[in-house]
Automatic annotation (TrEMBL):
Regions crossing the membrane: none
Originating organism: Acidiphilium rubrum
Organismal lineage: Bacteria, Pseudomonadati, Pseudomonadota, Alphaproteobacteria, Acetobacterales
Family of the protein in this entry: Belongs to the FAD-binding oxidoreductase/transferase type 4 family.
Domain of life the protein comes from: Bacteria
Keywords of this entry: FAD, Flavoprotein
GO molecular function: catalytic activity; FAD binding
Name under which the protein is recorded: FAD/FMN-containing dehydrogenase
Length: 459
């Protein structure tokens, strides 16, 4: 190990190789605080060539690497699998904007750039990078793609992989795949970019990406609505979708319990409704059309819904400040639940029509089996992804298994957008049959025969 550290220091420079305990400890703790697996060392290369050199040296020495972006993973995907088990390779210094093409609506950025910085780069060019997640201020592009992050605008634009045109990737042996192609059509062989998107750092290290942009909206309109039931939330979603599907950018769900916890822990948090509700929907319309009168559209849909007895109360943002305040209520939910105490997080998805059944059956199961538990669900109801989080001190594996049984019965997924990482490895084998897992293992072995890239993740 000492000899390897010496070679890495010579290749990357002393400032790029961290070995002191107080320097490397933060890189071994996941965001949720579930694991504290201190790495053997931390590498911070400054460019793709440095990443390739580091990977090649580690591979030759038989030392495993864990790629780490902003370390915002909800499933501990960016930390070592055990204490002193692997070297962490941080992409934080690869944070440059390489190019923006306004005519072609593409953005080329390095993997260590935060999602928020990439959004701002798109805005500066008069365009929109439509991917939006709560951790966008610290989550980095490489990790966002490697985990195929979803977020608030999946309903309109899809997940991270749907926005990727090309990638630059360092493979487990240190070779570089130069795949930064900004082509909308390219049927030349396998779509390798889709192989690395969602691979959770187990097949290679993404160092740069070509991302698809969209024209910037000319107009937005946002509202927060209180409702009595999840069925009513889904009905309201259908009404907005039927009214103007192309303008529906986001339809987010917050349960009454999640909102209550949020308001208790969120600085300056305030509910902009006259009364609390059992369920809430945050809805945003946006368009590039001129004179679209989106506020009029929202008023019309909400008026009809109120007349039908579907909603209890609603507030429409009258300014950009109010719009951001509405979104802050949604984006702060995870942080508020972290402050509330121990919780078991279930990132699940079901067909959209089954969301009411999911939440109703989960509530019944919890009341019967875990009477002290509080279900603080929230999520992206427009695409069927619910973060069915439970505030409890119960056994996490038992409770997750009970939730997953309901999800499986409804034809859903136990990992909607967070991935598998370390947290969900045990359940992975139950959700994919041997044939499918066998294909995945053969891909892993083909690219990483030594098993040195992100060991312990997924499998």
């Amino acid at each position: 190990m000492d000899a390897l550290i010496s070679r890495l220091t010579a290749a990357l420079g002393p400032a790029a190789v961290l070995t002191e305990p107080h320097d490397i400890a933060p890189y071994g703790e996941d965001w949720r605080g579930l694991y504290r697996n201190t790495p053997r060392a931390v590498l911070r290369p400054a460019d793709t060539a440095g990443v390739a050199a580091a990977v090649a040296l580690c591979a030759a020495a038989g030392v495993a690497i864990v790629p780490q972006g902003g370390n915002t993973s909800m499933v501990a995907g960016g930390i070592p699998s055990a204490p002193d088990a692997e070297i962490v390779l941080s992409l934080a210094r690869l944070n440059r904007l390489r190019s923006v093409d306004r005519a072609g609506l593409t953005l080329v950025v390095e993997a260590g750039m935060t999602l928020r910085a990439a959004q701002l780069a798109a805005e500066a060019a008069g365009a929109l990078l439509p991917l939006s997640i709560s951790s966008e201020g610290s989550a980095q592009i490489g990790g966002v793609i490697a985990t195929n992050a979803g977020g608030n605008n999946t309903l309109r634009f899809g997940n991270a992989r749907d926005l990727v045109l090309g990638l630059e990737v360092v493979l487990p042996d240190g070779a570089i795949w130069h795949g930064l192609r900004a082509l909308r059509k390219d049927n030349t062989g396998y779509a390798l970019r889709q192989l690395f998107a969602g691979s959770e750092g187990t097949l290679g290290i993404i160092t740069a990406a070509v991302l698809k942009l969209s024209p910037a909206p000319r107009e937005r309109a946002t509202c927060l609505v209180g409702l009595a039931s999840v069925a009513a939330v889904l009905d309201l979603f259908a009404r907005f979708r039927d009214e103007d599907d192309a303008a529906l950018y986001a339809f987010e769900y917050i349960s009454g319990t999640a909102m209550e916890i949020n308001l208790r822990h969120m600085p300056d948090g305030r509910l902009p409704l006259g009364q609390s509700a059992a369920h809430y929907a945050l809805i945003e319309l946006a368009t590039t059309r001129r004179n679209a009168a989106l506020r009029t559209t929202i008023e019309a849909v909400l008026g009809d819904a109120l007349e039908a007895g579907l909603i209890e109360d609603a507030a429409i943002a009258l300014s950009e400040a109010q719009r951001l305040a509405f979104w802050a209520l949604r984006e702060h939910v995870s942080e508020s639940q972290k402050r509330e105490g121990a919780s078991i997080k279930n990132d699940v998805s079901v067909p959209v029509a089954s969301v009411p059944a999911l939440l109703d059956r989960a509530a019944t199961m919890l009341a019967k089996t875990y009477p002290d538990a509080r279900m603080a669900a929230f999520g992206h109801i427009g695409d069927g992804n619910i973060h069915l989080n439970v505030i409890t001190t119960a056994d996490p594996e038992a409770l997750m298994a009970d939730v997953n049984a309901i999800v499986a019965d409804l034809g859903g997924s136990f990992s909607a957008e967070h991935g598998v990482g370390l947290v969900k490895r045990a359940a992975f084998g139950q959700w994919r049959d041997e044939t499918e897992r066998g294909v995945m293992r053969r891909i892993k072995l083909a690219l990483d025969p030594g098993g040195g890239m992100g060991p312990g993740k997924v499998f």
